[in-house]
Specification:
CATH architecture: Orthogonal Bundle
Number of helices: 3
Number of domains: 1
Distance between the termini: 45 Å
Oligomer: single chain
Helix content: over 70%
Length: about 200
């Protein structure tokens, strides 16, 4: 590539500018990657913690449901009285240009939708535990989606940083070396030529 470029001072200045931009781009990509990795690690820790909580609450919820089924018979009719929850909304936040989802779920206290006359505390406990599971599931889906998006962004950023570091920066360094050496050689030839002319004038 360097041998197709004319060794002029103008081309040398342009190559130096391009090298400076490529190095700046690499530094920015490296910082971006570091920030995204740190954000992803925090979310992975949070995902593990939410997953543990979900497992514990699921266990309690199924145990409470089992007790309710034993004491009331099958509770399917009670379950049908609970309306669909349409309160889930999505928003987003940006981390270094990466859009990450935020899941909102209405945090109003749960209301019982079945008659207290024919139910018992085991059914109430099962309902409250499964409401907790619903909230934790929304939180986990948000965290896992963020981790997935960050992993993709980190991969892209790494690819771009590698292209700058392994291809563009060495290319511009090679061009600068080629032009600098050619200009130095030209200057030496010019100096030698002037010496010869001076000697001939004497």
């Amino acid at each position: 590539m360097a041998d197709q470029i004319f060794p002029t001072k103008s081309n040398l200045m342009n190559a130096k500018k391009s090298l400076a931009l490529a190095q700046l781009g690499y530094d920015l990509m490296d910082k971006k990657r570091t920030i995204l990795i740190r954000e992803m690690m925090l979310l992975i820790d949070r995902a593990g913690e939410v997953q543990s909580r979900i497992e514990a609450v699921y266990q309690d919820a199924y145990l409470a449901l089992q007790r309710a089924n034993i004491t009331l018979g099958m509770v399917e009719e009670y379950a049908q009285t609970v309306p669909l929850d349409m309160s889930l909304t999505l928003d987003c936040r940006s981390v270094m240009g990466v859009e990450l989802p935020i899941v909102h779920l209405d945090d109003a206290p749960p209301q019982l939708h079945y008659s207290l006359h024919n139910s018992n505390s085991q059914l109430d406990e099962a309902y409250l535990k499964f409401t907790q599971v619903k909230r934790l599931t929304a939180e986990l889906s948000e965290v896992e989606s963020c981790v997935f998006k960050l992993a993709g962004a980190i991969k892209k950023t790494q690819k771009r940083a590698n292209a700058l570091h392994n291809i563009l920066i060495p290319k511009f360094q090679g061009i600068i070396k080629f032009i600098s050496e050619a200009l130095e050689e030209k200057e030496r030839e010019e100096f030698a030529r002037l010496k010869v002319i001076q000697n001939q004038k004497r």
